[in-house]
Write a structure and sequence with these properties.
Elements: E1 5-10, H1 28-41, E2 47-52, E3 63-67, E4 71-74, H2 78-90, H3 101-106
Parallel strand pairs: 1-2
Antiparallel strand pairs: 1-3, 3-4
Helix pairs in contact: 1-2
The protein binds FE2/S2 (inorganic) cluster.
FE2/S2 (inorganic) cluster (FES) is lined by residues 10, 12, 22-23, 54-58, 61, 63.
């Protein structure tokens, strides 16, 4: 089976006091497990929730990237997970408030807010890393 989307959830854990920190020390394993269970309950059989090693955005984590769109999120709570499942993975929108900073500039498609409104689209050609 080929999946429509892969969600990569960083669960890397570094020792306490590491200068970059790590997503694993910010509860990412529990959040990833929650997302996997909720995706199953919602019947999102075409979405794969993967654990990932370090995605190199440690300071902004817990880090999540969704492909094929290449959209990056910072996910701190189960409410954040629920919003991504609803707005991004079910409705095809973007959760503006959770986008990582570089992702804002890279977005060129309509953004859907948590209220379900189409909010904004970055101008084309703004570039930026996704
Ligand atoms: S530890 Fe999660 S992005 Fe590096």
């Amino acid at each position: 089976m080929f999946y429509r989307c892969h969600v990569f959830f960083c669960t890397n854990q570094r020792p306490a006091g590491h200068p970059r920190g790590s997503c694993g020390r910010k509860d990412s394993e529990r959040l990833r497990n929650y997302m996997k269970a909720r995706a199953k309950e919602l019947g999102l059989d075409d979405v794969r929730i993967n654990s990932a090693g370090c995605l190199d955005r440690c300071e902004l984590g817990p880090s999540v990237v969704i492909y094929p769109e290449g959209v990056w999120y910072q996910v701190r709570t189960t409410a954040d997970v629920d919003e991504i499942l609803d707005i991004h993975l079910q409705q095809g929108g973007r959760v503006s408030r959770l986008l990582m900073p570089e992702a804002d500039a890279a977005e060129t498609i309509a953004t859907v807010t948590s209220g379900g409104d189409v909010a904004s689209a970055a101008p084309e050609g703004t570039g930026g890393r996704r």
